[in-house]
Amino acid sequence: MHPQNKLAADFLFVLCVVATPTKALWAFASYLLLIGIAARLGEIPPRYLLKGLVIEVPFVLFAVALPFVSPGERVEVLGLDLSEDGLWSAWNILAKATLGLAAALIVAATTPLAALLYGLERLHMPRVFTAIAGFMVRYGDVISGEMSRMRIARECRGYEPRWIWQARAVGASAGSLFIRSYERGERVYLAMVSRGFDGSLPSSRGAEPGLGEWAASMVWPAIAACVAAAAWILT
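Above: the chain's sequence. Below: its structure in token form.
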């Protein structure tokens, strides 16, 4: 499937999830089923999705605190006095964030990076954003390798900071890494400009998606839209 179609379908699916009433539990179960089917068709192992969902831990911590600090009618759950509105708010954040992130992970796992950036450009994402994202991912391994070499050099000299009062060496290493990364970025940019770089990276443009491919890619968000509409009618 064309990356442009994947990104558009993912965006519409997440939009339907966000627009679903909080108390329509069956609707969220339906979305979860759709995501499970998509992951199965894409041959994505559950472990990959679970590892990717770790990024939402800060939202989980915020949601867990809501039942304790929110005002409103109180209910007792497992011996704890909790806010009913806070419980629904926590569920709303957890369910929608998890489903949206899982949908994004499926698209990322089944689409190469270059194709994703090309699809974003086709959806009129600013070229500055796609160029920065492309450089960030391409040179992430270079920066991590530089950081690893600095760590090895520090350990070879017998310094292994493990406590908070030993953070000075880590701070100095971070500053040195920033300067090296900045200088490397300048050299790479000047080299690209001298070779005709005009602000956008070349991409392998394949055939444009036809009506049939668009119709196939819209099946997933169309089902989600029907679920969201039914949830509003039945709630």
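Residues 3-234 form one domain.
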